Amino acid sequence: MRLAKYLSHCGVCSRRQASRLIEAAEVTVNGRPANHIDHVTDADDVIVSGRPVSGPAPKKLYAYHKPVGIDCKLRPDDASSLIHYLPPGERVYPIGRLDKDSRGLLLLTNDGELCNRLIHPDHHQEKEYRVVVDRPFDAQFCAQMRAGVPVDGVMTQPCRVEPVTADTFTIILKQGLNRQIRKMARYCGYRVVDLYRVRIANLHLDAQALPPGHYQAIALTQLELLEKEK
């Protein structure tokens, strides 16, 4: 199995993060620095950041109610990093990110294939947010957001936007550009003051059952993913 896929399969990290670790010379295979083209099996001695990889782990999935102020980057030297709030004894990582100023549902897993199916743009999994902006908006704002706006040099895909109150709307995306909703709103002349993710695929956040800062195990069978679009 290709090394990055193997690390993902073993629950070490996502394939993308595995590639970064290999590039940073944090991975060795049988005592030598790893290469991206390496293929390995459970019989090989694979070490990541000084820790041996012991083979595939049982697949885990957690729902986490991320508060504002938690950074999804896993940095041990950062007190605000999510790494300090993960389930104890579990080697899981976030599926995608919520920026530090945002809150709501975040999924944690050690299943690299599941992570890929949820974050890769080809799979188009829905994510729903409740958003508050700094002043009342009108129908033109909703229409513009639905149709797509330029973000970082690309047009955002059409999406669903529904007003809730004068300054609050829900938005359902199948995209995951960096700080996408904030940048979309800014392009339309508004500033996001609260961004709350309430759903990923078919999993809804129940804030009463799962208060901010808490997590709960989710059976993999509970997650229903859209099939990849042809």
**Biggest sheet details:** 9 strands, mixed
What's the shape? elongated
H/E element order: HHEEEEEEEHEHEEEEHEEE
Q: Give average pLDDT, whole number.
A: 90
Tally of DSSP helical segments: 5
Strand content: 25-35%
- Note poorly predicted spans: none
Q: Cα distance, first to last residue?
A: 26 Å
Helix/strand-derived category reads: alpha+beta
Gyration radius over CA = 19 Å
Query: Count the strands?
Result: 15
- What is the helix fraction of residues, given as a range? 10-25%
What does this structure look like?
- The chain is of the alpha+beta class and about 230 residues long.
- About 20% of the residues lie in helices and about 25% in strands.
- The protein has helices at about 5-10, 15-25, 110-120, 140-145, 180-185, and strands at about 25-30, 30-35, 45-50, 50, 60-65, 95, 105-110, 125-135, 150, 155, 160-165, 170-175, 190-200, 205, 215.
- Strands 5, 6, 7, 8, 11, 12, 13, 14 and 15 form a 9-stranded mixed β-sheet that branches.
Please specify the SSE layout and strand pairing:
Blueprint: H1 3-9, H2 15-23, E1 27-29, E2 32-33, E3 46-48, E4 51-52, E5 61-66, E6 93-94, E7 103-109, H3 112-119, E8 127-133, H4 139-147, E9 150-151, E10 154-155, E11 160-165, E12 168-173, H5 180-187, E13 192-200, E14 203-204, E15 215-217
Parallel strand pairs: 7-13
Antiparallel strand pairs: 1-2, 1-3, 3-4, 5-7, 5-15, 6-7, 8-12, 8-13, 9-10, 11-12, 13-14
Short summary:
This protein has 5 helices and 15 strands. With 230 residues, it is an alpha+beta fold.
